[in-house]
Batch of 3 targets.
Target 1
Amino acid sequence: MTRAWTVRGGRFGQREETALNENLVIAGWEETTGDFSHYQTVEEFREALRGFYPSEGVHTVNNWAHQLWRFCKIMRAGDLVVMPRKYQSVVAIGRILGAYEYRSDSPPGYRHVRPVKWLNVDVARAAVAGDLRDSMGSLLTISELSRRNAVERVTALAEAGSDPGYAGYIQPPANPATLKQEVDEAGTRQLTARDLIGLWNWSRRTADAIEDVDHALRALGLSVEPHFTAGHLNSLVTVSALDTAEPAQGTAGPEAHEDSGTATVSIEDDSPTKDFTWRIGNLPLATNVVTVTVEESLGRAVMHMVENDFSQLPIVDQHRRLVGVVTWESIARAKLGRRQDTIADARTLQYPPTAREEEELFARIRDIQRHGFVIVVDAENVVTGILTAADLAGELQARIQPFTVLEEVERRLRRAVSC
């Protein structure tokens, strides 16, 4: 059975060109020496890494052992491999051709390799749907893309440059121990924020729930990105090991990790920074956003706006990246100016206001008041939602009305008592 993997090209992308030019995927770990092909178990990898990195923590060494185990023993010829480019908005996709090789004559960090045939080296990152892109964006050097029809979707990306997406439901792990096991085996595990806190029998993100889940994750040596408080309960988060990346080049200590660039996190640190800020992603955003492209007719945009009672429509490219917006006002200006009936002629003169889910809500209220909306985009400027003034007013009513009712009840009770 074909599987799909992510193999990163180094903290600074230093191995990417060599990998592409020589048709390889390269594991890194420059402090290691010797052929790993004779190791038969994860424990043997773990023991070897303890010798190469004696100052690293247990969780770090265990995670690295599982990554190298995947690279040397689990990957098979015929499997797909994805290499996200560090400083380009593209990913390279290839097919593994053969077994693990140790190249003793190569420079440190370039010795553990597998031969590949690159199928498509410039797939636009924006063409990858957000859930799969988040999995590819894991800080692990080597991880498996194992859920949400990943193999079929990576195949489509390699062949056609587009991601068919996934609309199904993935069953969450049965318990925290299973979550830990799945992260060890695959490198990452995606699930919704709701399913994550549900593993510890929480259904709401109260202060106690956040503290409990954060502490439990650290005790298991796990981290979550984005944090489960950053978006709404049904948004996806990616769980991985606390210490995921190989050491930086020329560094054997914990102070500089290959892909994260951060210090090793101690699981004994019991004072996490708790984020109770009200963020845009905490609101029930409209996520199935109706959009139009520049090539479509203005009449089609008007039809969408009338049918759905919209005041604006985002304009996107083939990968749903935001390129503009059309509003009733901009349509009227185009008509009065006797311009052609095209989306390009009717879009607003100014670029539409955008926001990320993790942004603080109250910092963007002025923009919502001024424009009547903000369009929510991800790191690749792909449209993921829209927040309008009407949405904000409805949410504020839902949150504030109970307090105003209580205040009214209190006043009436005081009046009754005083009489």
Target 2
Amino acid sequence: MYKFFKILYFFSLFIIFPCTSFAQNNLRSIQDQKKVIINKQYGFKLDYQGRIIQKTNSEYLIQINKSNPQDLIYMKVDSRLSVYLPGTYGGWLYYNDKKSTQTQSGIVSTKKDTVNGMVFTRDYWLVYGGEGSWDAIINSYTKYKDKFYIFSLVHNFLEGMPGIIINNKKSTKQEFIIQGLKRMKNKGNVYVRKYNEMLSSFSFSNISQ
């Protein structure tokens, strides 16, 4: 009888484990499915992966990683240019705000992207918030009919306190910035990839009612 239950147990493993694996893979595929945002007020559409956890007519908050709610893409339409800095500022910071004079030194690199005939500026922000925490934000935007269309990717690309000893050497803030920028420019990073895919799908069109 003992041998019978032992055989039955091992047989069940061959059935349950593949089914569990299949279910998990199927769940991942559902989560990775692309969905579409159609905004009739501003006449644009774009694809996204993940889920929308907050939206208005001019702002969307998209969670791109279910297991980590802090991995987010903020999309905003505004007459003023801004960036989302959750740690060092606590929200949207306008570029021309007096408070942003010092913070804008956090733009460590800028490039241009062409998306469906539109030129997007991509700013890489690295702002040290103290105690080893950083805001490492990719902020892309374009201007169309007096409105800025802004995409801020929030992800923990970098952490660590400048001044700590690494490999028997005192680290510097610039060394952290170089490392963080390298990670943010890595197109193979899953978060950068999803962000780029979302950005590349953005377009204006005559959307029927």
Target 3
Amino acid sequence: MVLLLVFILAAPLIRFLIRCCGAGLNLASNVRRIGLMNDSARVNLRLEQQHDFRCMLHFEEGAPTLIVDEPPPLGEAVGPSTVELLLGAVANCLTNSLLFALRKYKQDTKPLSCKASAEIGRNAENRLRVLHIDIELQLGKSAAKRQHLPRILGQFESFCTVTQSVAQGIPVQLRVTDSEALVLKRNLYAPTDRFG
């Protein structure tokens, strides 16, 4: 039940990310379309329970309906779980932020890739929680073949709405590597950090 609440709170951001993916990661046009370039915006969705823990998410403006479900024994895993959606939202938002920064400096963006994992465990009250998120972004080229990389890496994640929001409650470890597995950046966002 707590995981469902986490998902519902993150759902507006997930909707935005799904739209970005569906439009070929055209972040700028999607941001304008749903009004997030303004100081504030409201994103809405509707959730309908189908059977047990399987639900249908209905988004505004014609985005495809999404089936979500929990893994057994609660559900049947016929769709992504709430934790997978949260993890996907963080991973996609960071990828989009890096993509946006690379494009801003007219850098080749292909192919970017991202690996993400979440540690789930019990808290002091013996409740299941997402305890930690690990994200690894990989550039498709060697760092030596990129211009403006220090500036891009120094600022891109501060524009990631989802990560900066989630990390206020869940530690997020970020690592950026190039195509030769050279680590270009490491950062840990912990709930005690201040975000602007």
